[in-house]
Amino acid sequence: EIVMTQSPATLSVSPGERATLSCRASQSVSSNLAWYQQKPGQAPRLLIYGASTRATGIPARFSGSGSGTEFTLTISSLQSEDFAVYYCQQYNNWPTFGGGTKVEIK
Amino acid sequence: QVQLVQSGAEVKKPGASVKVSCKASGYTFTSYGISWVRQAPGQGLEWMGWISAYNGNTNYAQKLQGRVTMTTDTSTSTAYMELRSLRSDDTAVYYCARDRGLPPYNWFDPWGQGTLVTVSS
């Protein structure tokens, strides 16, 4: 099983600031990585797949980068609706998720 | 639009079984697989398994082998997940999600709204 580790567990950011979330795989997953956003009481929503391709309807302030074992999700200027939990997921093999990063208001 | 609508919340006793449904609309059901993912209260996401809606092929997470069965009914575009011998640590929100990418290794979009399954004596 490929273990996905996200850091930090919690990120405190002010609205309008930049947020950088990290995700590390225990072995290479190439570019087979997705990012999801989850708000309380809601299902996860796909943001990014292929490590860097935005899903349909996702604002340009969300960007993904990386390959192999190190990945980053960047939110360029946080809006109020962006405060949520973010998960990475690899699909180079049977899917596994990271533990999540909670982005909270500073 | 593509939509997955799941059945309602369930309360079960330890040792019982639960069957959750996931009705798809807005796309050709047999062109995509369906995965099931669960989330225990306050916890992260756990992939449970996958079923091809095209031919019924399945693959289950090792820790659930023998307790979980995933099926589809192509006549109603509905996927089902049955979990048996329920334990308290099976208490979770269960999500279905449409598979994207090259099967069977997928990302997921969209997701159903979730079904809360509570296991309690």
Word description of this protein:
The complex is a heterodimer of chains A (106) and B (121). Chain A has strands spanning 4-7, 10-13, 19-25, 33-38, 45-49, 53-54, 62-67, 70-75, 85-90, 96-97, 101-105. With 106 residues, chain A is mostly beta strands. In chain A, strands 2, 4, 5, 6, 9, 10 and 11 form a 7-stranded mixed sheet that branches. The N and C termini of chain A lie far apart (35 Å). Chain B is an all-beta fold and 121 residues long. Chain B has no helices and 11 strands. In chain B, strands 2, 4, 5, 6, 9, 10 and 11 form a 7-stranded mixed sheet that branches. In chain B, strands 1-3-8-7 form a 4-stranded antiparallel sheet, with no helix packed on it. At the A-B interface, strand 5 and strand 10 of A face strand 10 of B.
Number of strands of chain A: 11
Q: List low-confidence stretches of chain B.
A: none
What structural class do helix, strand and pairing data of chain A support? mainly beta
Largest inter-chain contact set: A-B, 21 and 22 residues
Strand count of chain B:
11
- What characterizes the major β-sheet of chain A? 7 strands, mixed
Binned strand content of chain A: over 45%
Shape by Cα distribution of chain A: globular
Binned strand content of chain B: over 45%
Order of helices and strands of chain A: EEEEEEEEEEE
Structural class of chain B: mainly beta
User: What is the overall pLDDT average of chain A?
Assistant: 97
The helix fraction of chain B, in percent, is under 10%
State Rg of chain B: 13 Å
Query: Kindly state the mean pLDDT of chain B as a whole number?
Result: 96
Poorly predicted runs of 5 or more residues of chain A: none
